[in-house]
Amino acid sequence: MTLNNTLQKMTMRDAFLSRVYELAKENPDIIVLSADMGAPALDKFRKHLASQFFSTGIAEQNTILIGAGLALEGKKVFALAIAPFITLRCYEQIRIELAAMNLPVTIVGVGAGFGYDDSGPTHHAVEDLSVLRILPNFTIHNATDNVMARAFVDLSCKMPGPNYVRLDRKILPIIYQEETDFSQGLSVLKESQDIYLIATGNMVHRALEVAEVLKNHSLKVGVIDIYTFPINEKLLLEKIDGVKKVITIEEHTLPGGLGSAVAEILMDNNKFIPLKRIGLNLSKGYCYKYGGRENIQSLYGLDKKSLAKTILEFAKK
Fold this sequence. Notes:
Number of strands: 12
Helix content: 40-55%
Distance between the termini: 49 Å
Structural class: alpha/beta
Largest sheet: 7 strands, mixed
Number of domains: 2
Oligomer: single chain
Strand content: 15-25%
Radius of gyration: 19 Å
Shape: globular
Order of helices and strands: HHEHEHEHHEHEHEEEHEEHEHEHH
CATH topology of the largest domain: Rossmann fold
Strand order of the largest sheet: 2-1-3-4-6-5-10
Number of helices: 13
CATH architecture of the largest domain: 3-Layer(aba) Sandwich
């Protein structure tokens, strides 16, 4: 059985932690901190690498402080919890202890976007990209599939400063091959000279689906997956050079998210390409609706049918 076949059956969290475990067996300086998070992959740490695993309980602020202290002693720390809790609840600690001090701690957030669709707005991670990408010395890795999630472990171990790995809660289809190099921060999955859909995380899968639907309307659109922030500005400008329009798709708030990051790059480089940002408009407040993730996405126009309609209308302008 190939690695991809094995990864396809795992959650993104377990694919990531399994790779951490493989490296931790060879490197005693790798430490995992878990803030009220259980996982089958963590059971292996408890059993075989107990001295490299610490459960910090429901205390995310303290988790970051412990991680910073360990990093100062030369340890490579992975701090794990549900995404909004390990980012927003302890934002000041991240800002001062990690970003300001430039310490190599990897924050691991599980449940990107509406991943915890059954738990309400307290568990929705829809502002984390915005608040973390503005911090100095900080890198964000937003995983698209399990191959990428696994590769982010190796990238994290080599990073000299802090980073945030954003994982989906659900099992997503495998897109990438085992040998893919993710060091460039973005990949062109479908090429086009007319329109590009630029997506991140689980919305990359939706963008690929919509691109196929739009073929039936004689509209050829390409798909770019952006998985690292800050965005590789030079490479993105190179890939979209000459295209007629650009559309960003994200399961995240529009202010400060992927669309904002792309808009900043276009404006700062005098690239006046028509841009349409599609994401979450929270002007009426947080989402208290239920019925599953796809149902919630449809409320914000992120389902396949709504996206195809919005893109077609924008393409005709």
